[in-house]
Structures are given as structure tokens and as C-alpha cells.
Amino acid sequence: PAFQGMLALALRVAPTPASVLLRGATGTGKELLARLIHEAGRTPQAPFVVVDCSGLSESLFESELFGYEKGAFTGAQHRKTGLIEAANGGTLFLDEVGDIPLGLQVKLLRLLESGTFRRVGGVEVLRSSFRLISATHRDLEAMVGDERFRRDLYHRINTFPIHVPSLAERAEDIPLLAESFLKRVAGERRLRLAPGAVAALQVRHWTGNLRELRNLIERASVLADGELIEAVHFGMAGVGEGEGGGGAGNWGGFRVDEVLPLAEVERRYLAWAAAQPGGRGALARRLGLGARTLYRKLAAAKTGAHDER
Fewer beta carbons within 10 angstroms: which end of the chain, N or C? Predict the structure, then answer.
């Protein structure tokens, strides 16, 4: 439902010229959604130009965005077309718009308001008409309050905000996403995910979202010797440790990050417990259940039912 709601908003705004602001955690697929909006819009064959707003100094960012004239600065041996000029007639996607230097935000606002700009070192006023899509994982309202992001620019880019859900908000989609990623990385191998592996993915604490899931599936495909990917292939020491809780330590405990109905907590806990090493008999004893009761509960968990007995 979270994904379908996001998709409905994206398809509704796509045919319009409204500026779109995609908001969501890192790795949720904001650029993919921006491309979808562009391709479902009025000019799908026009350019889709991505501007990475993070990691650039103000001077370098300005020359990349607006372009520059020959001789504008040391090393400018020829005229360079900027990304804004390249996006004319199409879509300009400002990725991580919250990282734009404060001094450059004034020039960006002027561009969005008037549609005009000058290359660095130039005097000629140029025009560019484009559809604007911005994306950020930052709290722009807080940045506006701290005067780190211009209020007028915020309101200019925030015409149509869309929340891009995290994996925690769409846990029921994880099996389908995992299978999709596996098909992309498997190549000629007939790889498949064991039920315990899928259950382990559904209870994992995700910090990198879709990007983390894709990387985890690719690494597991390398570690698997046969055709079956098991939960252990996701939890080996040294794998995923740089992604906020991956690796062996990520399997040390059961965790939920929101208040859930008790039936859903039990379903997730059973899936997590079933993915741990050891047989079902040992698991039943550790849970204080009879073997038949455990099997019944696991079957109910797979179908989404809840056994009160």
C-alpha cells in the first residue's frame, strides 16, 4: 500500500509541469521514481539531466550547473555547456537538493523564477525551460528554520511533495524485490532463495533500503556455492558491516522499529527464529512449544493468519 500510494501520486503529477520534491531516506529509489515521472510526462523523449548536488564546492557546482565561457577562469580553455542548458525542453533532476550551497541557492531561485541564467564569465542572458524534480533525505523544514536553506527556494521546489517509503514501510514487498534483484545478478545460474533466507530479509533492520537489499543479494549470490541462497549467506562476518548493522552482528537479535499489532510481532519473530541455526525440534524446545504447535504457528505465519492457541 505504501508503494502503491506513492506510485499513484507520481503518475498523477507526471503529465503536469508542477515541480516535484521527492522525500525519503537514502537508498529508497528516488532517482528511479524521478525517471518514471519524466517518462510518464509530456516529453519522455526529451533529456533527463541529473545534477548531483552533494560533494561539490560552490564554484565547481556553479560551473557544472550553469556552464562557463572560454577564459572564465584558469583552465577554462573552451566554452562548456552547463547542465541547466542541457536540460532545456526536458527534466532537470536535482539529487540531494538540500546540499546546494547557500550562496548558490539565490542564483538557482532566480533561474526557477525567470527561466534565465548566465554562464560563468558570460554576459549573455540565456533561457532554459525544463521540468524540475528535486530529491532529498534531509529535513528541509529544519534547515529553513536554521537558515541553512532559503525559505523562498523551499516553497518554489515543494509544489508537489511525494514521500518515498523505506523498506520498513513496505516489508511485505521484500520477497518480490529480492527475487527481482536475484534475477538481475544470477546470470546463467539458477539461483533461488530459501524460505529461511526470505524470512531473514523480512526481519532485517534496513538502513540502506533498496540499495542495501540489492547489494546484499549480489554478495549472497557470490558466496553461495550451489543454487540455493540461505540466510547464512546474508550474515557472514565481514559482509555488510559498513551498512549500518549488516554482517554477523545484524542477526544477533530480533528487532522492530515501530509499534505493531501483537499478531504481526509474533509473525515476524517466528520468521526470524526459524531462520536461526538449528532444527525445528530444537527451536520448539527453545520457544517452550510442542513440535506440532510450532509447525501450526509457522504455517499460520506464512499465510498471515494468527493462531491464538
Answer: C
